[in-house]
Amino acid sequence: MSNTRTNTEATSQGDQDLGAAGAQLSTAPVDRAMPGSFGGNRGPGLTGWLRWTGREAVGWTRWMWRQLTSMRVALLLLLLLSLGAIPGSLIPQTSIDELKVADFKKAHSTLGPLYEKFQLFDVYSSVWFSAIYILLFVSLIGCIVPRTWQFVGQLRGRPPVAPKRLDRLPAYTTWRTEAEPEQIHRDALALLKGRRFRADLTSRQGGAGTSVAAEKGYLREAGNLFFHISLIVLLVAFAVGALFKSEGGKLIVQGDGFSNTLTQYDNFKSGNLFNTDDLAPFSFKLDSFESSFERKGPEKGTARTYRANVTYTEGIDGPEKKKAIEVNKPLEVDGSKVYLIGQGYAPTVTVRDGKGKVVSTQSVPLLPIDSNGTATGAIKVLDGYRDKNGKKEQLGFNAFFVPTFAGSGQGNMFSQFPALDHPVIALSAYHGSLGVDSGLPQNVYQLDTSKMAKFEDAKGELLKKRLVPGQTMKLPNGAGSITFEKDIKRWATFQVSQQPGSMWALVGAISAIAGLAGSLFIQRRRVWVRAVRGADGVTVVEMAGLGRSESAKLPEELGDLAGRLHEKAPSAPEPDHADHADAQHADSTPLVVPAEGAEK
Length: 600
Fold this sequence. Notes:
It is a single chain. With 600 residues, the chain is of the alpha+beta class. Helices cover 31% and strands 28% of the residues. It has 11 helices and 23 strands. The chain has helices at 12-18, 45-68, 71-90, 98-107, 111-117, 127-156, 181-194, 218-244, 502-521, 553-568, 578-588; strands at 4-6, 171-177, 198-202, 211-216, 246-253, 257-259, 267-270, 282-293, 303-314, 320-326, 331-333, 336-352, 358-363, 367-368, 375-381, 394-402, 424-432, 452-454, 464-467, 472-475, 480-498, 525-533, 539-547. Strands 5, 7, 11, 12, 13, 20 and 21 form a 7-stranded antiparallel β-sheet that branches. A 6-stranded antiparallel β-sheet has the order 1-2-23-22-4-3, covered by helices on one side. The longest helix is centred in the first third of the chain and has 30 residues, at 127-156.
């Protein structure tokens, strides 16, 4: 084999000579018109002006549509969408926590109104975020549809004929052989098809310039299109999920149950198009809660297992079923998922009046404040209590609970371990009005003492006492008592979610990654083989390759193909006169009409 070389930089004139051979390696549209040139020459009079204005308006509309549907604008909109989501993560959102939004406005008198004006408290439903989202959606569709049809047309077409000057291509090799041109073309066709090239025998008009044209790497463009189609699926899935989703939280004490109706939720939020009638009919009861913790070593106190054992029922009167809900192992019922998101302790207390009558026995869930189970809350007695004079009153107790008490010490007590090794509860007592009769919402875990009076001890200070299970705190002046029972229950918080587009979002994300990998790692390339008999009876073989982008693998692949073809058509002996060989080589190049539009 002789005269083998690699040309990595083709001149612009050489690109023009490639013609259709270099075109359509990509389905990206080519914008040939520049803004301001759409109307052309303006004709005389009002009619000429109207026609010119119409052409200009149509031209500008088409130009703006091309800009909107270009990949660079789609990527820019995707970047803007990502940047627009940042304030939604940093600033409290009304749809998630209205109380945090209200607190932010109170704490920031200047930023609050400014954020509200720009809808930064409702980012994902704001006008500007929706505009970016819709423009991105339109841009992707407008970009993909024409490119898809163009790609389908390329798949149905034949590989382009070889350009006039194969030696101008990035990868090129040539040699002289005594084999027949027709046999070389047949061998090249079989070789390229065996390498999974789409190959065909092509020729110029009139049968001149017969050559083998082959193409490979269509999955690159298919991967590119698949990636952007997957983005559309992802956007649609997110939109459907945002519009039709529902999400609610419920705290359930051991032994209590839950029915999937709106009134049963502690908090609930949903998409704008969600209908509460779409809530899946099911219910469940928290039978028990199991947990275990590391007892030794540097990870002492770390949770090993959290398991909520429930009995659930599908539908209104379905059979009862057992299920253990764990972290990341939700209960799935009729399109809804029930996640375990929290747990804690609910000490049982019994309140009696001055006559010893049981007024209230309740297991009160307390909220943990550290990883060792230290918890706080409020115990409220709303009805049934009367003081020694028979007057109706309400009682309130601030509660501080530790599952493992380490000793009295100084200041507040804190738990030393999250398991119930040595539970202690500290109570402080009040009486009066809890303020719940006003109709205003109130935090069940906090005690409003603005309309209450404190029970006083012998020193005239607030009555406080630490209790272990079974102990009782007496209220002064025969006002009654409160007993810390030995029955300490567990509670668990559950999140019930209904996300109709989550599966499609997952499919879109996986498909986008697969399509992106294909578009990045698969190279679109073309190979031509031309064999022409010279005047001296020796056949000149030319092989050239062209890729969508410069790649070191293209010359290597062409060299391998040329080596295989050279085995079947070995080099002929060199002629005595080099000038004569050059003349033969020049005569062997067929005359073709140059074309335009090569893309490297």
